[in-house]
Amino acid sequence: MSEAADVIVVGAGLAGLAATAELVDAGKRVIVVDQENADNLGGQAFWSFGGLFFVNSPEQRRLGIKDSYELAMQDWLGNAGFDREREDHWGRKWAQAYVEFAAGEKHSWLAQQGLKLFPAVGWAERGGYGANGPGNSVPRFHITWGTGPGLVEIFAKRVQAGVDRGLVTYQWRHQVDELVLTDGAATGVKGTVLEPSSAARGITSSRTGVGEFEFSAQAVIITSGGIGGNYEMVKKYWPKRMGAAPKNMLCGVPAHVDGRMLDIAESSGANLVNRDRMWHYTEGITNYDPVWPKHGIRILPGPSSLWLDATGKRLPGPLFPGFDTLGTMEHIVKTGHDYTWFILDQKIIEKEFGLSGQEQNPDLTDRNIKLVLERIKKGAPGPVEAFKQKGVDFIVKDNLVDLVTAMNQLSGENLLDYNAIENEVTARDREFDNKYSKDAQVTAIHGARAYLPDKIARVAPPHKLLDPKAGPLIAVRLHLLTRKSLGGLETDLGSRVMKADGTLFEGLYAAGEVAGFGGGGVHGYRSLEGTFVGGCIFSGRAAGRDAASRI
């Protein structure tokens, strides 16, 4: 099979849709190639919570949040920790460009296309170190009304307009195996036509080939995603600074997020940087109704749960729930165990447990105001309660003795000493006798409630875990959860791929996670959150616009 177009886009995820939408606006002919079936349009972004990073947004201002480009840039740089001269060269430039975008036209540009946001702004990655250290100084996590599917819909509609005009052709079940080069420039792709699949979105599909294809174009844009669904690749590039890779991790993305195109592009001469920078989560729970293998869901925690390692030792400050994902990951891996524990109570779970992913938030995904209002009623949100009742990682008991006994039984390792945990819980509880405390986590809880949306809907009133009125007690076993790769194909600000010698790879572009969301590492070592789907949009837009201008 042979076909030609102006541009080939490899990957029908959010970055690919954003790039294609820009090409359609410029009247270019596009072939969109994807190894999955049409039900997977939108890729990984479809499964996301749809969180977006904005700076000095109308939503922030309405809540009295004082944000600015300068403060956001301070936070980004403190979070990223850029420390590599060559590998971080373009990442730094992308960081400045993206924060300018987030503080500038991003909000109005997306609003013009139909984006609507939930009015409460979330406060992710709170840091807890210092003004120049990691973390967000203010809440910046804006939830898309409609979550990931709502965000995908915006760009899918623009691309569909191109299909209707005869400009765009989707080639589903086409797996790219090779870039076609002409005089060193990317001029097409070759690969395997996979057998038809009726597998539902996210379900692992067949890789049996039934034919071959070759498509030609004046430019190729790679938007194939990261490596989170390929644990062997995660282990291969696991950062040495963190020691040995965990033996077990849950998977936070479908199996098709396999990283294949990274090696294919590199073998053709593209430069890959920062492959040891990754963004995995520490609060994973086993999905009782899995879609893909080892399917894990991330808890989006409030700050009140007591966090213990596998041996029962409390995690040190500021490694509190929701404060520093990377720092917490590094600490956990060095313990030699790949799981930890939350100890909390009914009062905390009702207010502080959110679940990442569109399918775990049907009220926001379905844009159902009535369901949203039920979040403030007594009782845990429906999806959380379902995990509490059905999830293998949840334990509910009326007293601490029975709770710790069940925790040891669940792990099968008998590592937890009741007396030590009882002492930790009791000492923590004494710190709630006053509205101030020497315990940094208790102080953080009081501080979080100074932000009105957190006080209303996100942070439980300060109280003692052993208060019978707050019970029953709950323990949750938390697994490490694969999610994002922060490094990838090195690109300039036009999303044009670079070669190892620093020259441009003619005709080749990359956007989204495969490009480290821009430049091969716009986040550095850490994400401020809400920056992934936004990074797909921004880098995809840049790729589409630059390619259109040169064809």
TrEMBL record:
One of its GO terms (molecular function) is steroid dehydrogenase activity, acting on the CH-CH group of donors. The keyword Flavoprotein applies. Residues 6-533 form the FAD-dependent oxidoreductase 2 FAD-binding domain. It holds the Pfam family FAD_binding_2. Keywords: Flavoprotein, Oxidoreductase. SUPFAM superfamilies: FAD/NAD(P)-binding domain. PANTHER family: 3-KETOSTEROID-DELTA-1-DEHYDROGENASE, KSDD-LIKE STEROID DEHYDROGENASE RV0785. This is FAD-binding dehydrogenase.
